[in-house]
Design a protein that fits this description.
heterodimer; A: 645 residues; mainly alpha; 2 strands; 45% helix; 2% strand; B: 87 residues; alpha+beta; SH3 type barrels; 1 helix; 34% strand; RNA binding (chain A); PAT1_dom (chain A); nucleus (chain A)
Chain lengths: 645, 87
């Protein structure tokens, strides 16, 4: 072995032989003993904090706190102890307190003590070693393997704590400055490591910042710099005894193999999520040779540390999808429990199957050439990009413009929905009114933007947006917030342009408009209803019959028609005075007959909803036989009764 | 097309890999287990591979099972995320 001295020599290059030569430009006199004392105190704080925070249970009761250096200690301060070869360590050693963390070095050598004090004194400059991250080097216990080269595998023996005894040997373990997270020692190190001087206060990162920062570093964000104030609330939330315990779900000791789908400790998973995970649980796959290298406690500790990073004070903002998804599942289950049948199917994603029309020949041989053209092959399958044709540019630009507008309006809509969610009964009057105003303002903004897209275009209000599926979804979500006359306007646009909408609905997103429009229809007065029906049936080039025929062939159209008729029947049978305009009733009966003719003859598509009072309506006006025929025709499509019997 | 239970990862080199999602990390590196190559098995060198680690930067698409994702909610979450990043 090398002697300690030699080894120390290796590790500490360029120690000036003459202690007085030590000068770092900032003046050795800067480091007065007051600062030393402050640092000593800080160390104590750090130690206490680490114990509390991480509760590592590294077990050793810290040695009694070292006596603070007498304030009047004159120099020799740092210079002398830094010369390693100097014999007179002892006189300088006496006043210097052991500065190491008691946990790690309860009986470290005196030389180390003195030296480390000196190192401490030169903090913030990082001049001692090449690597600015390295602040102190201590000797650790050599591993079995380094001692005896015959040992190839230590098996599952627990590696004893390396820092305990008097050290011999040549193994050195670098200890990072304790201001850096002590967890840093265990985690991977991503260069560059930013050394933190204790003299520079560090702001604790907000959850948002740390969320971004943990991409680059592995700093636990809330490890506070002792010189920075930490809100007591945050401390209480996360650390020490209040650190979230592992969920009972996680049992590291029960089986040696960790099924990776277990949530780690300290996860606050939604109970629904936990249930789903337990259902998906798999059997353990086999023996894991690395399962006993760490104790369960250590594993738990590390996992807890990682989970701390994931805590946030505003989960609804930062983990919106997760929170909202499980909230919806919960409310759906709650609904089911209450016995309310949900009539709608859960939304399913239907990706239309697009046939790949342009295939390419991977190997191209040009006539008369000697070889083959380098085209993508199965070993290099990169496809060539197909260029955009120039003549389609305008329509594309228009479409892009509309899509862009829709996206911006979606942002506003999300704000509206968020504000709506915040309106609880607990709010004060003024607060409530303020929120309502805010909502109205934004809703009107969206509405006006949708209405007047392009003054030059003759396409009409709202239509360009309704032709795009995203626009349909936007309108569908906007409708509940609109006032009656605005909503009616949109309904009339839909019914007026129904054939266009139906024909240009490749994705079949029209049905998304049905529920909100049905609500609008439910609020119509009789004459308004007649107006809408007129829109539906008196289109430019088509007769009423043809309009109806078109409508009946389309799911959305048929459902809309049914909804309108149902509303009419409801109004008629309710006994409320209708105040019809002249000719309303005639239009009404006329449409009834036409519709009846349609429905009984052609094959119907399945509507989204079959109102229960339709047959009652037909019974009013038609003979029994026709009604019966209608009934069987309608029922054959839906498979359910048109009239609850 | 694919008979896997979970996801299909399409890479930038046009290779599509079907498999069960094992884990994802901060770089969106993906670990898949029980993989198979979809579409024509033009890539026979993958036949014996059961598990794989895919570097996040080479992924073009990840196709998720339709009934386990609420796409509307996902779109809203993405919009909110974009909004927050702008601020």
């Amino acid at each position: 072995f090398n002697t300690k001295e030699d080894v120390v020599q290796v590790c500490e290059p360029q120690w000036p032989e003459n202690g007085e030569d030590w000068s770092d430009g900032e003046g050795g006199t800067d480091m007065d003993s007051g600062l030393l004392q402050a640092m000593a105190e800080e160390d104590e704080e750090i130690n206490v904090h680490n114990e509390e925070t991480f509760g590592m249970g590294f077990g050793e009761s810290p040695p009694p706190p070292p006596p603070p250096p007498p304030p009047a200690t004159p120099p020799p301060p740092q210079p002398k102890p830094r010369s390693p070869r100097r014999a007179p360590w002892s006189p300088h050693r006496a006043p210097s307190p052991p500065r190491q963390k008691p946990q790690y070095f309860p009986r470290a050598s005196s030389r180390q003590r003195g030296r480390s004090r000196g190192q401490r004194a030169a903090l913030g400059r990082g001049q001692m070693f090449e690597d600015p991250a390295v602040m102190r080097i201590i000797e650790g216990r050599p591993s079995l393997k380094s001692l005896d080269s015959a040992i190839v595998d230590c098996g599952t023996t627990m590696y004893q704590r390396p820092f305990e005894d008097d050290v011999t040997g040549s193994l050195y373990i670098v200890d990072f400055f304790p201001f850096l997270s002590s967890t840093f020692f265990f985690m991977q190190v991503y260069p560059p490591i930013v050394p933190r001087s204790p003299l520079f206060p560090r702001q604790p990162l907000t959850p948002r910042q740390h969320y971004n920062q943990t991409r680059a570093f592995m700093f636990p964000p809330t490890h506070p710099c002792p010189s920075t104030p930490q809100t007591p609330k945050m401390m209480q939330l996360r650390f020490g005894a209040n650190s979230p315990r592992p969920s009972p779900f996680y049992s590291p000791s029960s089986n040696p193999v960790q099924p990776f789908r277990y949530p780690g400790p300290a996860t606050q998973l939604h109970p629904q999520h936990k249930r789903l995970l337990s259902q998906k649980q798999r059997k353990p796959e086999g023996w894991d040779p690395y399962c006993n290298l760490m104790t369960a406690k250590e594993k738990e500790w590390i996992t807890r540390l990682q989970m701390i990073q994931l805590q946030s004070e505003n989960p609804y903002l930062e983990d919106y999808y997760y929170q909202e998804y499980y909230r919806r599942i919960e409310s759906k289950m709650a609904e089911e429990e209450l016995g309310i049948r949900s009539k709608r199917e859960p939304p399913k994603l239907t990706t239309p199957y697009v046939k790949k029309t342009d295939s390419y020949t991977p190997v191209v041989h040009i006539e008369g050439s000697l070889g083959q053209v380098a085209v993508s092959t199965c070993y290099s399958p990169r496809r060539a990009i197909s260029a955009v044709h120039a003549d389609q540019k305008d329509t594309r630009l228009q479409r892009l413009d509309i899509l862009n507008k829709i996206e911006k309006l979606f942002m506003v809509l999300l704000e509206v929905e968020e504000t709506e969610r915040m309106k609880t009964p607990l709010l004060s009057e003024a607060e409530d009114r303020r929120l309502v105003e805010k909502i109205q303002r934004k809703v009107e903004h969206i509405y006006s933007q949708l209405q007047h897209h392009n003054p030059l275009e003759s396409e009409g209000d709202f239509l360009p947006f309704l032709l795009v599926s995203k626009g349909k979804k936007l309108v569908a979500r906007l409708l509940p917030f609109l006032k009656n006359d605005s909503a009616l306007k949109i309904l009339r646009v839909v019914t007026t342009n129904l054939p266009t909408l139906m024909s240009r609905d490749a994705d079949e997103t029209l049905p998304v408009l049905y529920p909100p429009l049905r609500n609008v229809i439910g609020g119509l007065a009789f004459s308004q209803l007649i107006g809408v029906l007129k829109d539906l049936t008196s289109l430019e080039s088509l007769t009423t019959y043809e309009c109806l025929e078109l409508a009946c062939q389309n799911k959305f159209g048929l459902s809309l028609l049914y909804a309108l008729l149902s509303q009419g029947e409801k109004l008629l049978s309710s006994g409320v005075p209708l105040e019809p305009s002249i000719g309303d009733f005639e239009t009404w009966t006329d449409i009834i007959f036409q519709v009846a003719g349609q429905l009984s003859q052609c094959s119907l598509v399945e509507p989204l909803l079959l109102p229960s009072n339709l047959l009652t309506l037909f019974c009013r006006y038609l003979d029994k036989r026709t009604v019966h025929q209608l009934k069987s025709n309608m029922e054959s499509v839906t498979g359910c009764l048109a009239l609850p019997s | 097309m694919c008979f896997c239970s979970d996801v299909v990862v399409e890479l930038k080199n046009d290779l599509s890999i079907c498999g069960t999602l094992h884990s994802v990390d901060q770089y969106l590196n993906i670990k898949l287990t029980d993989i198979s190559v979809t579409d024509p098995e033009k890539y026979p060198h993958m036949l014996s591979v059961k598990n794989c680690f895919i570097r996040g930067s080479v992924v073009r698409y990840v196709q998720l099972p339709a009934d386990e994702v609420d796409t509307q909610l996902l779109q809203d979450a993405a919009r909110k995320e974009a909004m927050q990043q702008k601020q």
